[in-house]
Amino acid sequence: MDFFEDNNPFGDQNPNRLSESSKHSEEQSASATQQNQNENDDNIAWNLKASLEEKGRKATFWKDSNVKEDDLPSAIFITGAVKAERGNHIVYNIKVNNSEVQRRYSEFASLRVQFERLYPTCLVPVLPDKHKIMDYVFNMTKSQRTTRLLEERKRLLQSFLRRVALHPRLGKSDIFFKFLSRHVSWNDVLHSAPISLLPKDSLKVHPENPASNEYTDTYSRLPVPSKMSLPVESYDEVSRSYLSLENSLRNYSVNLQEHLSRINRGVFSISQMSLACSNLGATFNALSLSETAQLMAALEKVGQANDQTCLSGIDFIHGLVVDAIEPLSEVSKSAKSMRHIIIFRRMKYIQNVVVKDLLRKKRGLLNQLERREQQASRLQSAIEGNDGVLDDETRNLLEASKSASQSLYGPEQQRDGLNGRNRPLLSDLHENFGQALGNEHEVDEQIDSERIQEYARELANTQHQQSEVASSETSVSTVLLPRKVRDVFDQIRFAFNGLADNNVEANRHNSMGWTIESIHHLETMAELTSRDLEFVTASIGSEYERYKRIHQEDMSTVCNKFADRHIEWADRNIRAWRNIRQDLTSNVM
User: Cellular component terms, GO, for this chain's entry (predicted)?
Assistant: First the structure.
């Protein structure tokens, strides 16, 4: 009980308890402010140290690579894919002018994951899949499939690094330069700051700087709601516009996947046609061996034309994969990534609404507790003011109830003599009697004294019933239970009686203290979530504008190259068959 009283700002039973609780709350606020100031000082020192280390690493990287910062995107090349010296995995050689480092595919994937954790509002470029369906379209051996996969990965990983270097925030990130540096082990990067400081949930960090240690305790207490915890009808206008944008991005990504499936089916048909032309060319070449000189030349020319058609079809397929299928796949994945960023903004909005709703409920609870405190104060004042009106019987009942409470629980515990089952009765009596005395200037003193006498009789009867119940429980437990078991239950009962607080007034004061503390934390959470929501909205808005610009450029390039590949394929076939027709016309006919 002493522990609860020492930590309860409303524990003192005196007329100045409210002022003392306010003073205690001010002391807590001052202590929290001082603690936040110390955390901010530590955060500034840590950021300064990290900034100096980052500048040193970047200076070393620029010195090794001998390249200007503006020329970095065009200076990144993946020159090869070789087997690692230790292990059976493949590593890719990343060359930046004079500097070269080897990284495996899993490290590329890890880099992208860390980018998403460190920059939750930035659109991180996409990576190629581990396995492609197109690898199984052709009848290739395992070695041919591996070669094709490695070549595709080299192109897409190089595109990934260049897009990261072009990004205004990702390209200047410290971990990006660590990834390109040959002096840094990527495993050490993953187990060092700032990555080691990141929590698992991105909703419990500062979106602008997730590795910051500012307000870490407050962020760790933030609720993590689900997407369905808030109905769409409750969204504001901005959130509804982002929700429609999210749906349009999902539909766009699905449509792109459908078009990619159609292109893949077309590529498969062209591959079958190329295979048929190859077989047909071999057949004409075989027939030419058994014919006369003039017919043999004609058949050989037709076989060569079929072979050229087969080769042009293979080149056309390769061009479609490189210039159309791979870029469209990147565009589809980028749309998914952009949608995930918008979902993150929706989650931050729901989180802000949930925190504000909790704050509103806590304030309502505090108002209710304050009204009960005022009613109890009026009740106490009425009892003290009508002390001379009470008769001897009522005064004896009040004194008997007070002495029974002290003898039952002890003077140190200051119990009110009521257990948990009878507590609602006393609470109702307090509330009803307080309401009756709310307009005490208009009520007759005789009526007040009668109600006080009735209240004292009810209190004495309640305590008498409690003592009878306690004695009956003790007698039953003494008769039915063995001594060892009874001793164990007595110890458990003693522990629970020590923890349980049957004092209604003390419970109310404790609830007010806890509620005020919760309101203080929720106000800080509401301020942080509102500020984070503003930053996320502004950052995602600018990121979406950048995404639209890059998307338009990519789609324009894809469409132009797609048309150029078709024109080139058709032109090669026309030239081949026109030459054959001229030869046949001049030599055979």
Answer: cytosol; endosome membrane
Distance CA 379, CA 377 (A): 5
- Hey, where are the domains in the chain? 5-9+383-512, 62-198
Question: Residue 75: which residues within 8 A CB-CB, separation 6 or more?
Answer: 65, 67, 96, 97
Q: Name residues whose C-beta falls within 8 Å of residue 212's C-beta, 6 or more positions apart in sequence.
A: 43, 47, 206
State both tokens at 140: 């290739």
Strand 99-104 vs strand 76-83: parallel, antiparallel, or unpaired? unpaired
Nearest-angstrom CA–CA distance, 274 and 316: 10
Residue 184: half-sphere exposure toward Cβ, Cα within 13 Å: 23
Looking at this protein, which amino acid is placed at residue 562? F
pTM of the complete model: 0.70
Give CA–CA dist 486/12, Å, rounded. 36
pLDDT tens, position by position, 429-460: 344 434 444 444 444 445 445 555 555 555 45
- Cis, bond preceding 194 (omega within 30 deg of 0): yes
Q: Which pair of tokens denotes residue 88?
A: 């059976």
- Measured N-to-C along each axis, helices 105-118 and 142-166 cross at an angle, to the nearest 10 degrees, of 30
Supply 562's token pair: 């797609």
Task: State how far the Cα of 229 lies from the Cα of 219, in Å rounded to an integer.
Answer: 20
Crossing angle of helices 423-436 and 504-587, in 10° steps, is 110
What pLDDT, in 10s, does the model give residues 534-574? 999 999 999 999 999 999 999 999 999 999 999 999 999 99
Distance CA 316, CA 569 (A): 6
What torsion, rounded to 10 degrees, do the Cα atoms 206, 210, 215, 220 define?
A: 90
Q: Where are the alpha helices (DSSP H) in 167-236?
A: 174-180, 186-190, 216-220
Both tokens of 492, joined, read 């458990």
Angle in degrees, 0-180, between the axes of helices 445-480 and 423-436, rounded to the nearest 10: 180
Q: Would you give the distance in Å from CA 497 to the centre of its chain?
A: 43
DSSP letter for 112, please: H
**62-198, CATH topology level:** PX Domain (3.30.1520)
Specify which residues 188 forms β-bridges with: none
Q: What is the pLDDT of residues 316-355, one digit of tens each?
A: 999 999 999 999 999 999 999 999 999 999 999 999 999 9
